[in-house]
Design a protein that fits this description.
Blueprint lengths: L3 E6 L9 H15 L5 E7 L2 E6 L5 H8 L5 E11 L7 H18 L7 E8 L8 H16 L2 E2 L6 E8 L2 E5 L3 E2 L11 E5 L5 H11 L3 E8 L6 H14 L5 E8 L1 H10 L5 H20 L4 E2 L12 H8 L6 E2 L7 H11 L2 H4 L21 H8 L4 H10 L2 E6 L2
Parallel strand pairs: 5-6, 5-7, 10-11, 10-13, 11-12, 13-14
Antiparallel strand pairs: 1-3, 1-4, 2-3, 4-8, 4-9, 7-8, 12-15
Helix pairs in contact: 3-4, 5-10, 7-8, 8-9, 8-13
The chain binds adenosine-5'-triphosphate and magnesium ion (MG).
Length: about 400
C-alpha cells in the first residue's frame, strides 16, 4: 500500500547557499544506502526527499537502512495521489478529498482506533481549502466511517496529510532518523580507534556531524594476536553502516613501545605512547587532507586522561583534537555503544597495545617541559617514519 517514503531533514546547516550541496549529499547517501533495495527513485520536492518504492522493495530493510543515514530527522512511509494542481475550485477539491478519505480508510490497518486527528500541512498554497479546512473536511469524513472521537492532544491515530506541488501524501507514522548532518558533508578527520568501548563511539559522534572518519589503529603484533586487529576491523565494519566505505590504517607500534619502555620512565609510558600516536596520526591526517584528530577520551576516566596529561599529550600534534566524549560518564558511553552496535565487540577480551607494559602507578600530573626533555632521549622521528612505512591500509565496506 505504501509506495513512497517522505524524508524530512534537519533545517540546521541548511540555510543559505550551502543548502543544496547538503541536500544533494543526503540524496546521494540515501541512494547509496538503499542500493539493491528496490527503490525506483529519490526525488526532491519542497524541502523534502521522496523515495518511490518499487514492487520488490522490502520495507523493514529500507527502514533499517534509513535509520542509519545521518541528516534524516524523520521519515514516513506514505501513499501518494497526484492531480492537485488542477484543483482550482472548492467543489472539485472537496470531491478530491472525498475520494482521498476513502483511500485513507482503505489504508488504515487497524480500524478500531478510539480517537484520531488529521494533521494537514499545505505547501501548495493554491489549493482552494486552507489546512484547517482540510482537517475539518477530512475529519468529518473519517468520523463518519470510524465513529471515533477527534482528539487533538492525544489521538490514538494521527493521519498526516501533506499537500505539496501536484501531490498529496498521506502517512500515519513518523519514524525518527539518526539526525545529524549527511556523512561526508563536513570534511575529513582521523580517529584513533582502539577496540575499546570509547573510541568507536567518539568516531560515531564525528560521523554524525557529517565528518568523513578515517580510522587509525595502533597494534603490537606479533606480541598481541592478529585477532585483535580483526576485532577492530569488525568494529569499523559496523561503523561503516553510517558512512559509505571506511579507510582503516593499521600501524605497527611495537618497536616504538619497546624503545619507550627501554629508555624512558615507566610511569610516563602511556603519555609517550599517546604522543607518538598523535605524531603518527597527524602525518596520516596530512596525507589524507584531514583537518582534525578524534579520540575517545573522557576527562578523568583513567590516569592518562587527567587534565594535566591531556595538556601534555595534546602538544604532540598541531591539529585540533576532538574528544566528543570528554564530558560523558562511562554509563552514557556504554549506552551509546550498545545503540550503535559496537559494544559487544568492544568487550571481547583482546589485548590492546596499551595494555602491554603498563606500570602499576602511572603519572597523573605529567609536566610538559620534563616530558619533552625526556623525549629527546629517544630518537622518535625515524621510528615514526618506519611505522608509517610499514602501515597497512584496509578499505572496510559495510557489506
Ligand atoms: P577506548 O575505549 O577507546 O580504548 P579507553 O577509555 O580505553 O578508550 P585509553 O585506552 O586510555 O582509553 O585510550 C584513550 C584514547 O586513545 C582512545 O579513546 C583512542 O582514541 C586512543 N587509543 C588508545 N589505544 C589506541 C590504539 N591501540 N589505537 C588507536 N588509538 C588508540
Ligand atoms: Mg583502550
Amino acid at each position: 500500500m505504501f509506495t513512497r517514503v517522505i524524508i524530512h531533514y534537519h533545517e540546521i546547516g541548511l540555510k543559505g547557499k550551502n543548502r543544496f550541496i547538503f541536500e544533494n549529499r543526503l540524496r546521494q547517501n540515501i541512494t547509496r544506502a538503499l542500493q539493491g533495495e528496490g527503490v525506483e527513485s529519490v526525488g526532491k520536492i519542497s524541502g523534502r526527499l521522496i523515495l518511490k518504492l518499487g514492487e520488490k522493495a522490502a520495507w523493514p530493510e529500507v527502514k533499517n537502512r534509513l535509520q542509519k543515514v545521518f541528516g534524516i530527522a524523520y521519515f514516513c512511509p506514505a501513499f501518494a495521489k497526484t492531480g492537485l494542481k488542477e484543483l482550482k475550485e472548492r467543489g472539485p477539491a472537496e470531491e478530491f478529498l472525498k475520494n482521498l478519505a476513502d483511500e485513507i480508510w482503505a489504508n488504515v490497518e487497524n480500524k478500531n482506533f478510539a480517537s484520531f486527528k488529521i494533521d494537514t500541512k499545505r505547501g501548495q498554497k493554491d489549493f482552494p481549502l486552507t489546512s484547517q479546512e482540510v482537517n475539518q473536511y477530512l475529519g468529518a469524513l473519517i468520523w463518519e466511517k470510524s465513529k471515533a472521537k477527534v482528539d487533538l492532544e492525544h489521538p490514538a491515530l494521527t493521519i498526516f496529510v501533506e499537500l505539496i506541488e501536484d501531490f498529496v501524501f498521506i502517512y500515519f507514522e513518523k519514524i525518527k532518523g539518526p539526525g545529524g548532518l549527511p556523512a561526508g558533508s563536513a570534511g575529513k578527520v582521523v580517529a584513533l580507534i582502539s577496540s575499546g568501548i570509547d573510541s568507536p563511539v567518539a568516531s560515531y559522534e564525528l560521523m554524525k556531524r557529517g565528518a568523513e572518519v578515517i580510522f587509525v589503529h595502533f597494534h603490537s603484533y606479533p606480541t598481541t594476536s592478529l585477532l585483535s586487529q580483526e576485532n577492530v576491523k569488525k568494529i569499523v565494519k559496523i561503523l561503516s553502516q553510517y558512512q559509505p566505505d571506511s579507510k582503516l590504517y593499521l600501524v605497527p607500534f611495537l618497536d616504538i613501545q619497546k624503545e619507550i619502555t627501554a629508555k624512558l620512565p615507566l610511569n610516563l609510558g602511556i603519555i609517550f605512547y599517546r604522543r607518538a600516536m598523535f605524531k603518527i596520526a597527524q602525518k596520516i591526517a596530512e596525507q589524507e587532507k584531514a583537518k582534525a584528530l578524534v579520540t575517545g577520551e573522557s576527562l578523568g576516566q583513567v590516569a592518562s586522561q587527567t587534565l594535566d596529561n591531556i595538556l601534555v599529550i595534546d602538544e604532540a600534534s598541531t591539529l585540533p583534537i576532538f574528544r566528543p566524549l570528554i564530558g560523558r560518564d562511562k554509563e552514557e558511553i556504554i549506552a551509546l555503544a550498545k545503540k550503535i552496535g559496537t559494544f559487544e565487540l568492544s568487550i571481547l577480551p583482546y589485548e590492546d597495545c596499551c595494555s602491554l607494559f603498563i606500570p602499576a602507578h602511572p603519572e597523573t600530573k605529567a609536566n610538559l617541559a620534563i616530558v619533552k626533555e625526556l623525549e629527546t632521549q629517544i630518537n622518535l622521528e625515524p621510528l615514526v617514519n618506519e611505522a608509517i612505512q610499514k602501515t597497512k591500509v584496509d578499505i572496510i565496506k559495510e557489506k
